[in-house]
Design brief:
51% helix; mainly alpha; 0% strand; 67 residues
Amino acid sequence: MHYIGSLVLIVWLIVGAVAAGQRSDYTHPPANCSQAATIAVTIVAGPLNYLGVNPKISCRHLPQPSK
């Protein structure tokens, strides 16, 4: 049973990586946090990308450390 779950997870991430490639996310290295996070979320979303999910992450308002 553990083997099947691991296999499903690997296939899920591979499908997400293919989707990121089809969106040309790998053409240039990520220039900022937002681009890197969007690539990561696209990969994690996996097959959901083909069902209309278009994840975008913005890192413009990162929390500041307390003083």
